[in-house]
Amino acid sequence: MDVLFVIPPSVYLGLLLATFICFTFHAVMGRRENSGFFYWPFGVAGFAGGALAAGAIGATYMAIGGLPILGGFVGCLVGLLVAHLVLT
């Protein structure tokens, strides 16, 4: 149980935001009932990659607690568009 306190809160916030973006994307662009679970790993990986890339280049315009939200959002959308192209 103590392991959950070691993980920074920004990781939980990133997972929450990526999940929200993924299932919103699925509601708008999804074509199958179960494609929401297909989009989720791509969205989370894209959010993490975008946040890491934005942090590395110093583009922390909309940062909440060290988590660059704008970079993560853009990375998540790129990952979701790649998943959408794979699915169709």
Describe the protein.
- The chain is mostly helical.
- It has one domain (3-87).
- The protein is 76% helix and 5% strand.
- It has 4 helices and 2 strands; from the N terminus they run H-H-H-E-E-H.
- It has helices spanning 3-6, 9-29, 35-57, 69-87, and strands at 63-64, 67-68.
- It has a two-stranded antiparallel sheet.
- The longest helix is centred in the middle third of the chain and has 23 residues, at 35-57.
- The termini are far apart.
- 30% of the residues are buried.
- The model has no long low-confidence stretch (mean pLDDT 88).
- Mean pLDDT score: 88
- Number of structural units classed as domains: 1
> Residue ranges: pLDDT <50 for 5 or more in a row?
none
Structural class: mainly alpha
- Count the beta strands: 2
Helices, by number, come to: 4
> How does the major sheet shape up?
2 strands, antiparallel
Distance between the termini: 41 Å
SSE string? HHHEEH
Strand content bin:
under 5%
Shape: globular
Largest beta sheet: strand ordering: 1-2
Helix content: over 70%
Q: Radius of gyration, Cα only, in angstroms?
A: 14 Å
Quick take:
Helices cover 76% and strands 5% of the residues. With 88 residues, it is mainly alpha-helical.
